[in-house]
Amino acid sequence: MNIDKRWILLLAVASGAAALASVATRSRRRTLRTEHSLEHAMDLRSWENEGGNLAPAPVAATPA
Asked: What's the pLDDT score for residue 6?
């Protein structure tokens, strides 16, 4: 089977673009996960520094 050199070049460029898009997507996803993890850790530390207790439940008034 005789493949024209232009097709090989086109296939190589398309494969390279697909690989680059895949790497860029993985990198962006990893960055977002890291940012979310760091934000969560900072929020948790902040919450723990406040005493880490939930707000007290409201007390219902009992009729006399």
From this structure: 82
What would the two tokens of residue 37 be?
């993890």
Taking CA atoms, 54 is separated from 43, 47, 57, in Å, by: 15, 10, 9
Q: How distant, in Å, are the alpha carbons of 23, 51, 56 from that of 35?
A: 18, 25, 32
Number of alpha helices (DSSP H) and beta strands (DSSP E) in the chain: 1, 0
DSSP 10-49: HHHHHHHHHHHHHHHHHHHHHHHHHHHHHHHHHHHHHHHH
Enter the pTM of the model.
Answer: 0.56
